[in-house]
Amino acid sequence: MASQDNVSRSPPANAHPMKIALVTGITGQDGSYLTEFLLQKGYQVHGLIRRSSNFNTQRLNHIYVDPHNANKARMKLHYADLSDASSLRRWLDVIKPDEVYNLAAQSHVAVSFEIPDYTADVVATGALRLLEAVRSHNIDNGRSIKYYQAGSSEMFGSTPPPQSETTPFHPRSPYAASKCAAHWYTVNYREAYGLYACNGILFNHESPRRGENFVTRKITRALGRIKVGLQTKLFLGNIQASRDWGFAGDYVEAMWLMLQQEKPDDYVVATEESHTVEEFLEVSFKYVGLNWKDHVEIDKRYFRPTEVDNLKGDASKAKEMLGWKPKVGFEKLVKMMVDEDLELAKREKVLVDAGYMDAKQQP
Ligand code: NDP
Ligand code: GDR
Fold it and tell me: Distance, CA 228 to ligand 1 centroid (Å)?
């Protein structure tokens, strides 16, 4: 699916020149929602994808248009990696984007304890490589690309809520410490070189496209399968942790808004409501008429060496300066995810019953 096409800025027949965005992490949850959002705004969207032994574009397949149909294809994919500085600079020179959204990351907190060195290389140094590529591209070409950095509420770590832009960081994982480094690299490139660079400090945001090993999706995926009889148990770690969970589709709009302001700045994006994992279990299981206590077992392997107990954002700056507010609340988010995963489980059940799939296997 990735191409090496040259890039044309020509608009369809009528309008002014199309804006061009470059998105790293386009195959992830946020990358897919941001791409839909930008296409709908009339952008041409270029995504950097990394080489994998399996195709990793499932979240984008519904938007993809064959590049041989070039007039219609406004999303294009190219191979690159945040660990390869040369690939980043090359694609900036070819694509000449107006806006760069750096969403790529080894984004799993627990996994970052297992692969800390790799996590730092991609999350921290990867952001630095991209900032440096943008800075040097701007100078060499007399351009002024705007840059968005995907920051995280994990940076606040053990600092108690409510957390805002002025709350001190106290990271509790290699992932969170790496995001802090990326945050400060971004601030430094803004101050040192006058780059239009923004940090979005986003609290947890979920959707039916959430990776299946993050706790919300792990719950709704298992719940769907329990409901249709494909499994009975769900193993979880610390269910007392509390998170400010929003809907990913709402949060990508805030990313875009940050790059449309007169001056670059940093913003917290959150719902300002916090719920424990246990509350997520309560609401989701009750919605399909089940009791979570009949199915959930606590497994020590899912506990982290250091935990982030309580996150709850104060998004008043984003509300006031960007005019942003979330549209989807906690209960609606839970139900949206359960509905989708119940449908997915029903389709799996058909395959299992027909002998095309093992119940233990997931598509
Ligand atoms: P995902 O894990 O769903 O997506 C991560 C993306 O990064 C994928 O496209 C992945 O590619 C890509 N990627 C991973 N490693 C590399 C690499 N070495 N080079 C290039 N690309 C790479 O994350 P989300 O969409 O949920 O999050 C987007 C960003 O926002 C991340 O930076 C995350 O840390 C941050 N964030 C997320 C929050 C959330 O609640 N979702 C909250 C706050 C911050 P592949 O598909 O091949 O794995
Ligand atoms: P988080 O999300 O660490 O907040 O990072 P995750 O869904 O992984 O964990 C949330 C909380 O649930 C607890 N938990 C479990 N978590 C997982 N994954 N699996 C379990 O079985 C389980 N049981 C309990 C965790 O301990 C934690 O307290 C997400 C990622 O998207 C980051 O990239 C992003 O920066 C932050 O959100 C904001």
Answer: 31
